[in-house]
Amino acid sequence: MKKFEIKEEFYLNGEPLKIWSGAIHYFRIHPDDWYHSLYNLKALGFNTVETYVPWNMHEKKKGEFDFSGILDLEKFIRLAESLDLLVIVRPSPYICAEWEFGGLPYWLLNDKEMRIRSRDESYLKHVGDYYHELFKILTPLQITQNGPIIMMQIENEYGSFGGDKEYLRKIKHLMLENGVEVPLFTSDGAWEATLQAGSMIEDDILPTGNFGSKGEENFSNLKAFHESHGKNWPLMCMEFWDGWFNRYHEPIVTREVDELVASMKEVMLLGSINLYMFHGGTNFGFMNGCSARGPKDLPQITSYDYGAPLDEQGNPTEKYYAMQQMIKETFPETKQLSPKIKATMKHAGMNLKEKVSLFNTLESIPKKQTNAYPLTMEKLEQHSGYVLYRTTYRKDTDQEKFRIIDGRDRAQFFLNEQLISTQYQEEIGEDIEVLITEEMNTVDVLIENMGRVNYGHKLLTETQRKGLRQGVMSDLHFMLDWEHYSLDFETSDFIDFSGEWQANQPAFYRYNCELTTIEDTFLDVSKFGKGIVLVNGVNIGRFWETSPMQSLYIPKHYLKQGHNDLIIFETEGKYAEEIQLVERPIYKEMKENV
């Protein structure tokens, strides 16, 4: 039987082990590409892969669990094992990861009395229900049962959120109760305050540090923390940030290659390392996270390229080859291989086939509810996407003032299907003054959830409940009798293109896409304003003209030879008669925020 131990060093089967790990999130990569990414990690000379586990994907609805397709965690781990890679799993309820709500399920928000990431018994009951299913998969894959998993995380950067040790112990107990036998660890910023708050060193749980530079200084802090508790343990950077994520309205974040590789070498000479990220991948669908900054939340873009050694597609970058050379020179005994490289393709001349305005396909939307007052997305049992709220208004005056009260995140206000105002976060609540010419009027409010925050105190705030949280006022009173049309885009079958298209309205556009061969590709969305793209029914992510990236990555496995159904939902009234697939991402030059 294989054996992994934590003493003064890490030991594998009695031999000292330096962990060289890379982060690959199975849920951000098409399953048919997992092997490609894992192989390239092994080819670099690394011995371990690390992954988070997103609760909100595996249990989208309370009590309904999914471990299939892109969520087939066991298959991912077995693939790693087939390449002789060890595995570190971070199955904590909260993961951050620039992922929607930090991996927490949206339905937790329906209990306003419950406190997430705490000793709250109702929260822990939900975690326990989830762990009961999750660890059926993970526990048989532990090294103690001859599998590849060597370590698991208890909570993620908890020292940057709370200091509830009783909560941490209860999470640990749930893991042990569900059969976890491998060593456990915590990961936090490598300074005293976060280590004290987030670690469980007093319970003999290994603390690790997260940082992207100054390895000697950060490891010194970590070592001093170990020693202050009488421990002589190995040093590990659980997240060595080799790049960074990107947000709308901001330029692409870059890191100079030589500086990165020098910093990485410093860490590898002193201890163990996990590259965050090794392959970043893609925030498919609506799963991008959001940064909490002051009064405003700043959503991250669909691409999670991260400036990693493998690009969004999974091919080696300049960083990869520089890391490869450094390892060859510094650790010459390391076995390395040539990396795998996937092809890309271009395809021009995909013509617009059909188009229809959202308002003219409403009755085909399957998820419709009515209520006296508007309901939040959470109350509608809708994880993400859009909700169209509709009611009627009888004319009281020639000049009416409307206000959206407490909505999140982005609202488009329509009167008689004509756009009157677009408001975003802190603008919501401002007066919307309208000239009224009709006796009876239709009021529509299209609300987009642009992503819940993934880090910090705002996880606990009302801002994470999405949609219309209070309502819409005309004059000084709340309007009643709302229809709710849920647009989560879990399917595109509902779209009825037989209706009319009207200019300057949210609309659906279907393009004729005939392919004789298929490879990975990127869709040019630079002629559109804001929306999402559906490829053969799969939501591959959001686009916005304010993004530093003006293309969306399409893995070849979402395409097929022959006819492909490509639908764009666009909310700003901008579209193109012809679109194209390109071989490389399209970047937009943007100025730094002041």
Automatic annotation (TrEMBL):
User: Which Gene Ontology MF annotations are present?
Assistant: beta-galactosidase activity
Name a single GO biological process: carbohydrate metabolic process
Keyword Transmembrane helix assigned to the entry: answer is no
Q: Which Gene3D superfamilies match?
A: Galactose-binding domain-like, Glycosidases
Does the keyword Magnesium belong to this entry? no
Sorted alphabetically, the keyword list is: Glycosidase, Hydrolase
Query: What family does the entry list?
Result: Belongs to the glycosyl hydrolase 35 family.
Q: Could you identify this protein by its name?
A: Beta-galactosidase
Query: What organism does the record attribute this protein to?
Result: Vagococcus zengguangii
